[in-house]
Design goal:
Strands 2-5-6-1-7 form a five-stranded parallel sheet, with helices on both faces. The protein has a two-stranded antiparallel sheet with strand order 3-4. It has a two-stranded parallel sheet with strand order 8-9. It is α/β, with parallel strands linked by helices. The protein has 16 helices and eleven strands. Strand 10 (354-357) and strand 11 form a beta hairpin. It has helices at 20-32, 47-60, 76-91, 98-104, 133-146, 171-180, 195-203, 223-236, 243-252, 257-273, 281-294, 296-304, 308-319, 327-332, 338-350, 366-373; strands spanning 37-40, 65-69, 110-114, 120-124, 153-158, 186-192, 214-217, 240-241, 278-279, 354-357, 360-363. It binds adenosine-5'-diphosphate (ADP) and magnesium ion (MG). Magnesium ion binds next to helix 2.
Length: 375
C-alpha cells in the first residue's frame, strides 16, 4: 500500500477534500453562462487544485477547458506560442484545417511543430518586430473564433499576475481586457498566489481589469474537515490515528493543505518504515522536525536573498506572532523604527513569506518558522 498523502501533485479525487460550496458555486456559474472569476488566496491553500477539480467537472459536463500557468511562459513569445498551442489542441474542431489558422492569425506566422507524441504545437517565426497589441489580440481571440454556435469553453490562467511582465505599461492587461470583452462563448478564470498584486489588478480603478470579474477569496479549509481528512487518509492505508493526534498534525502546519499533505506523508513514512499500525503524537513531532531539516538548504538559500530587516522580522515572527508591530513588540525583538518594519513587512507579504492568519502575522511556511526558531 502506497503513501496515502501526496503533496507533489494537485490534489485530485479522493485526495481532495472540502471546498464543496465554492466548487459547486463555480460549477453552476460556468454552466449557466458567461462569468469571469478571479480566485485569489495565499500559496499552497489549494487554488490550483480546486480549479483542476472544477475543470474536471466542467469537462464532464461537456465544456472544454484550457489551462495555462503564466509562470511557465515568462516572455510574450513564449506566452503566445503556448496559448495558441493549448487553445488549438483543445478547441479546434476535429476537421479543422491548419491553414485556416492563417486567417485568424494574420499578423503572426505560425510554424507547426510536432512533439514526441506527434501532437501539433506552434511556434511563431521570429520576426524583427516584437509581438505587439495586434498580434496578441489575434491569439487571445483564438478561443472565441474556434468555437462555433452555442459551444462554450473555459480558459484558466494560473498565476495571472505575472502577465504584467509580458508587455510594458500594463500593455498585456489592456489588450486582454479589450479582447475578452467580446468573447460571448468563453469564460475566464484568473488565479494567482501573489494575491495582493492580483487583487490590485482587479480592484484598482486605474487598472484595465478593474471590476471585470467576480472576485472570490479562498481561505483555509475548516479545521475539522482537515482533521477528518487526515484520519481518513491514514485509515485508507490501514493505519490508525487518534483524533487528537490528527488535530495536532493539522495545528502544527497552521491548517494549510499543502503542509498537511507534506506532514501526513512524512508521518506515514515514519510509522510504515517502523511497521507500526498507529500514529503517536511523537511521530508527528519527529516528522515535523525531519521536514524542517530536509528543507534546510532551501531556507539558508532564501535567507541569503533577504535584507537584514526582513530577516529580523521573520525571526521575530517565528518566535512571537502578532497583530501589530507596536513599540513594545519592536523593542522586544530589536526591530528598529516602525517605517523599516513596515517596508520589510510589505515585501515579505508580497513575496508570500509571511501572511495573516486569524488576524496575526505569521511566517507562512511552518517548517521555515521552525528553522528560524533555532539559531
Ligand atoms: N482540497 C485539498 N485537499 C487535499 N489536498 C489539497 C487540497 N488543496 C490543496 N491540497 C494540497 O496542497 C498542495 C498545494 O495545492 P495547490 O492547489 O497547488 O495550491 P495553490 O495553487 O493555492 O498554491 C496540493 O499539491 C495538495 O497536496
Ligand atoms: Mg497554484
Amino acid at each position: 500500500m502506497g503513501n496515502p498523502f501526496n503533496y507533489l501533485q494537485f490534489a485530485r479525487g479522493d485526495q481532495f477534500y472540502d471546498r464543496r460550496d465554492i466548487r459547486e458555486d463555480l460549477l453552476s456559474r460556468f454552466l449557466s453562462g458567461q462569468s469571469n472569476v478571479v480566485l485569489y488566496g495565499p500559496r499552497r491553500y489549494g487554488k490550483s487544485s480546486l480549479v483542476a477539480e472544477l475543470t474536471g467537472d466542467l469537462e464532464k459536463a461537456g465544456i472544454p477547458c484550457v489551462t495555462l500557468d503564466v509562470v511557465k511562459v515568462p516572455s510574450i513569445d513564449l506566452f503566445v506560442s503556448a496559448y495558441a498551442t493549448k487553445v488549438y489542441r483543445r478547441l479546434a474542431p476535429v476537421k479543422f484545417e491548419l491553414r485556416k489558422l492563417g486567417t485568424f492569425l494574420k499578423s503572426l506566422r505560425p510554424k507547426m511543430t510536432l512533439d514526441q507524441t506527434g501532437e501539433a504545437g506552434f511556434s511563431f517565426e521570429p520576426s524583427d518586430e516584437q509581438i505587439g497589441a495586434e498580434a496578441l489580440t489575434e491569439v487571445l481571440d483564438l478561443p472565441q473564433k474556434l468555437l462555433s454556435g452555442k459551444k462554450r469553453a473555459v480558459v484558466v490562467l494560473d498565476e495571472f499576475q505575472e502577465v504584467k511582465d509580458l508587455l510594458p505599461n500594463d500593455g498585456f492587461e489592456r489588450v486582454m481586457r479589450s479582447a475578452i470583452q467580446s468573447h460571448r462563448n468563453v469564460s475566464y478564470i484568473f488565479l494567482g498566489s501573489r494575491y495582493h498584486m492580483l487583487r490590485r489588478m482587479f480592484t484598482d480603478h486605474n487598472r484595465p481589469f478593474y471590476k471585470s470579474a467576480v472576485t472570490i477569496h479562498i481561505d483555509k479549509p475548516p479545521v475539522d474537515e482537515s482533521v477528518r481528512f487526515v484520519v481518513d487518509r491514514f485509515a485508507s492505508a490501514g493505519k490508525a490515528i487518534a483524533c487528537e493526534t490528527a488535530e495536532r498534525l493539522v495545528a502544527k502546519v497552521e491548517n494549510i493543505p499543502y503542509f498537511i499533505q507534506q506532514l501526513g506523508f512524512e508521518t506515514f513514512r515514519l510509522i510504515d518504515d517502523a511497521r507500526r499500525k498507529s500514529v503517536s503524537p511523537d511521530d508527528v513531532d519527529s516528522a515535523f522536525a525531519n521536514l524542517s531539516g530536509f528543507n534546510r538548504d532551501q531556507y539558508e538559500q532564501l535567507m541569503l536573498t533577504l535584507s537584514v530587516s526582513q530577516k529580523k522580522l521573520l525571526i521575530a515572527l517565528s518566535r512571537e506572532r502578532t497583530d501589530e508591530f507596536g513599540d513594545a513588540y519592536r523593542r522586544r525583538h530589536a526591530l528598529g523604527v516602525s517605517s523599516t518594519v513596515n517596508s520589510a513587512k510589505g515585501k515579505l507579504m508580497e513575496d508570500g513569506h509571511i501572511e495573516q492568519s486569524e488576524g496575526k502575522y505569521v511566517v507562512a511556511d511552518p517548517f521555515f518558522a521552525q528553522f528560524l526558531r533555532f539559531a
